[in-house]
Every structure is written in C-alpha cells, then in structure tokens.
Amino acid sequence: MRKNNRFLKIVVYIFLVGYCLLTVAPFLWSILTSFKTTAEIAGGGTFFPETWSLKGYETIFKSQFLQWIRNSIFVALFTTVFNLIFNTMAGYALARIDFKGRQLLFSAMLLLIMIPSQVTMIPLYIVVSKIGLIDSHWSIIFTTMINIGYIFMMRQFFINFPRDVEEAATMDGLTRFGTFFRVVLPNAKAAIATQSVFIFMGVWNEFMKPLLFISSPDKYMLTQGLNAISKTYKNATQWDVIMAGALVSIIPIFILYIVMNKYFIAKNDQTAGIK
Hints:
The chain has 275 residues and is mainly α.
C-alpha cells in the first residue's frame, strides 16, 4: 500500500514539474528574446542569446513608451477606484437592502453578463461621441467604471457576511453608511483586493476600447503603443522590441500583486468582529 502511495506521489510530482516547465518556458523565452539581436531571432539561433543586446529596450524608451505607461497607469487607477466604489456598494445593496424590484434588477444584470462586449462597442462609441469624450482617457474610464461580474461577486460575499456584526454596529448607533464603511468594508479586504487586482489587469491589458476611442499617439494606452511600434517595421516583426516592451509593461502588475498578496494568502475570518 505504501509503495503504491509513493509511486502515485512520484507520478504527481513529475506531472507538476512538467506542467511548471511548460508554463515557465514561454515566459523565459520572452525574457531571453528581448536580449537577442533581430538577426539572431530571424535566424532561429539557440534558446539563449549568442550575443546579448539591449537594442530592444533602447528602441522602446526612445519612443513615447513612458508616456504610454503613464496613460495606462492613470486610466487603470481611476477605473479601479471607481469600480471598487460602485461595485462594492451595489453588491452590498443587492445583498442587504430590501427594496422593490431588487430581484428583477439582479436578474436583469445577470442577463446582461451574457451579452458579448463586442456587441456594445458601436453603441458605446455613439454615446461617448455624443458627450464629447472621443480621444480622451475619460472615454475608457467612463465606459469601464462599473462591472456586473464584480457586483455579483461582492453580492455573494456580503450575503455570507455575518448579520450579527451589522446588528451589533446598529445597536451601537451606527447608521447604514456608518456600518458599511466602518464595519463591513474593513472585513472585506480580501474580496476588495481580489477585485482590484483583476480590474487593474483588465484595464491594463485592454486593447479594443483604446483602439476605438483614442487616436492621438501621445494619448495611446500601452497596448496601443506596443501595437504601433510593431507596425513601424514593415519588412519583419521586431520580436526583441515587442518582448522588451511586453516585459516592462508587466512590472506594474507585479508591483500591484506584491502589495495585495497578503490579502490573498491571509485567511478571511468574517467572524472576527463577533464578540
């Protein structure tokens, strides 16, 4: 019996190591490719660079790359903040406040999730054009500052949140808003951190909306900028430049994850407030 368990563990470990290598290999290839010359990449070459080159990084930093990063950070931060406010408050209202038509509204929201975003692109463009936000970063923020999926997530979180904590806060004299901001939100850090990371990543990697709404090169989002750089070379794709830009662009995501990591690994004890 022990031999069978040991054999099973070995098989599982081999599978996990193989899967890990399969996952890491493309990322490692991207890093190494960013340090290769264009000629070496075109010729195939070896997995590791024969001649280490920083030309890809020099090319992107000679462009408006830093401006595009600033644009993306601005849009992603504002969009994340608005989403955290609206999604969290809407989720709490749907979970705790008993108002007429609540279930109908929630059902309608669930139906809207099933509509592909591509279907709403043209209507969104018309609305944004009517209010004069075309070629503005606020066009992306305005059309992305609420997410039904995360409203649903926060609703499910608040449904499972202990009512005893809120009742105790009410007995202590807190209003509905006081209970929400002083008691409920501090105990929802894990859900809020999860929401913030995925929203930030979604906006950071967004390509279709910036392509639709923004046309000025100095207002490009990072995804637009990288696409524009890749199109400047007509003869061949400059993979060293593209990989260098892609690697630099993921640094803010890593920083955000490191900051929020403690909320992911920490146990979300919702009964901590009950005494």
